[in-house]
Amino acid sequence: DGVPPPLTPVTLSIERHCSSWILSKQDVFIPQHGKKVTWYCCGPTVYDASHMGHARSYISFDILRRVLRDYFGYDVFYCMNITDVDDKIIRRARQNYLFEQYREKQPPAAQLLDDVHAALKLFSVKLRETTDPDKKQMLERIQHAVKLAAEPLERAMQSDLPAAFSSTALLAEAKDLLSDWLDCALGSEVTDNSIFSQLPKFWEEEFHRDMEALNVLPPDVLTRVSEYVPEIVNFVQKIVDNGYGYASNGSVYFDTAKFASSERHSYGKLVPEAVGDQKALQEGEGDLSISADRLSEKRSPNDCALWKASPGNPDGRPGWHIECSAMAGTLLGASMDIHGGGFDLRFPHHDNELAQSEAYFENDCWVRYFLHTGHLTIAGCKMSKSLKNFITIKDALKKHSARQLRLAFLMHSWKDTLDYSSNTMESALQYEKFMNEFFLNVKDILRAPVDITGRFEKWEDEESELNESFYDKKAAVHEALCDNVDTRTVLEEMRALVSRCNLYMAARKAARRRPNRALLESIALYLTHMLTIFGAIEEESSLGFPVRGPGTSLDLESTVMPYLQVLSEFREGVRKIAREQKVPEVLQLSDALRDDILPELGVRFEDHEGLPTVVKLGDREALLREREEKRQVRPVFQAAKLAKMKIPPSEMFLSESDKYSKFDENGLPTHDTEGKELSKGRAKKLRKLFEAQEKLYKEYLQAVQTGSFQ
Question: Quick one: where's region Disordered (predicted)?
Answer without folding.
Answer: 663-682
